[in-house]
Design a protein that fits this description.
single chain; 402 residues; alpha+beta; Heat Shock Protein 90; 5-stranded mixed beta sheet; 66% helix
Length: 402
């Protein structure tokens, strides 16, 4: 299909060149000589010119030599028979010369075409001059005078070819510069990602490791602790190990973006009970209503819901300790969206001052936006906080594949 579409403009250009090269001589001939012999020579010359223009795109040198031979033969023949051809009959030759200069690089084919053309001109002059008996249009040096400006057409074609080559070279240099710039940017991004990974490993990973060590120490001395403290120590150790695993996974992907295959399975709706158990173990209460049969949803959708619930519960514990939390997860089949609502009331005691990075809501919104969903978060009238998210039941990639 691409080749067929590419041929249509070329055919249109060739047809335009035929009209441009033949229309002026055809009109001019009607005012120069209207005898049948003159029209016969004009028709023969014109037919060869039309064929030469049509094949000139593929065989510019051959087309030029053939058209020049036919033109010289017509001029000599018409001169011998005493009829006159319009000087504009040379116009197709100018068109072919322009194509020769535009499509040939000035090498062997151009030299051969110039040599053959010179030989044809000399042969025409040699034949025509002795046969001419004086008067009228001689077809000899008068034709040579008309042919003299023709190299200008070749020069214009050669200039057009040179300009195209310069533009192509400039585009190639621009593309090469763009590729080099992108490569520098990618290398700079990799260096920055590696630096961030080192900082995270040296700071966060060390703190998490220390946290797990202290929690394991408490677990080892569990007999000296009350029951509630032993449960807290177990939860603290489990949370530390899980966070360490997730951090190592994030650092691995941060160091090598091409290594996108995760070693740890992404969290899903099946882990919501674990989140709620940890929330209750930390002293919170939760009322939960999750529609059944949602475990078959795409992994990215489940992971996004899991992270929104995780952040919402963490914010409730951080900013409103002891507040009741209501969690609702429903699938709206009519709109094709999964609706998630997490609402907490006001805390029973003051929240932790200065805790959190302030990016929790922004992170939740980024996750839902990445899937084509929406998220709204804000305080409620009774002093609590509400998070409402709507995520498509199918990811864009799976929808396209379907």
């Amino acid at each position: 299909m691409k080749r067929i579409l590419g041929r249509r403009p070329a055919r249109g250009v060739d047809a335009g060149l035929v009209v441009l090269a033949l229309a002026p001589p055809l009109v001019s001939q009607a005012y120069v000589d209207t005898t049948g012999t003159a029209w016969a020579w004009f028709a023969c010359c014109g037919a060869v010119a039309v064929a030469a223009v049509l094949v000139g795109r593929r065989l510019p040198a051959t087309a030029f030599v053939a058209a020049l031979g036919a033109l010289v033969a017509a001029l000599v023949g018409s001169s011998v028979e005493g009829v006159e051809l319009t000087p504009l009959v040379l116009l197709p030759l100018a068109v072919l010369l322009h194509g020769l200069g535009s499509r040939c690089a000035g090498g062997r084919r151009t030299v051969l075409a110039a040599g053959a053309g010179s030989a044809i001109l000399l042969a025409g002059l040699a034949v025509n001059r002795p046969a001419f008996d004086g008067g009228g249009f001689d077809g000899g040096f008068g034709v040579l005078a008309v042919l003299a400006p023709m190299p200008l057409a070749w020069a214009m074609g050669f200039a057009a070819r040179t300009r195209r080559e310069l533009l192509a070279a400039a585009e190639e240099r621009t593309a090469e510069a763009t590729r080099a710039r992108r490569l520098r940017e990618e290398r700079a991004a990799l260096r920055e990602r590696a630096r961030i990974a080192r900082e995270m490993h040296d700071a966060v990973a060390h703190s998490l490791t220390l946290l797990v060590v202290h929690a394991e120490t408490l677990r080892a001395r569990g007999g000296e602790l009350p029951a509630w403290a032993r449960a807290q120590a177990d939860g603290l150790a489990a949370a530390g190990r899980r966070s360490g695993d997730e951090l190592r996974e994030a650092l691995r992907m941060l160091r090598d973006p091409a290594d996108a295959v995760t070693l740890c399975p992404p969290p899903g709706l099946g882990e919501l009970d674990t989140l709620l158990d940890r929330h209750r173990a930390a002293g919170g209460t939760a009322e939960v209503r999750v529609e059944a049969g949602l475990e078959g949803l795409p992994g990215p959708v489940q992971a996004a819901v899991h992270r929104v619930v995780q952040e919402s519960l963490a914010n409730a514990r951080r900013h409103a300790p002891g507040a009741p939390v209501r969690l609702t997860v429903d699938a709206d089949r009519d709109t094709g969206r999964l609706l998630l609502e997490v609402v907490n009331g006001p805390g029973s005691r003051p929240g932790t001052v200065g805790s959190g990075s302030g990016l929790g809501v922004a992170g939740m919104r980024a996750r839902t936006d990445a899937l084509g969903g929406e998220l709204a978060a804000g305080p409620t009238a009774d002093g609590g906080f509400r998070v409402l998210a709507a995520v498509p039941l199918e990811t864009p990639l799976e929808t396209a594949g379907a």
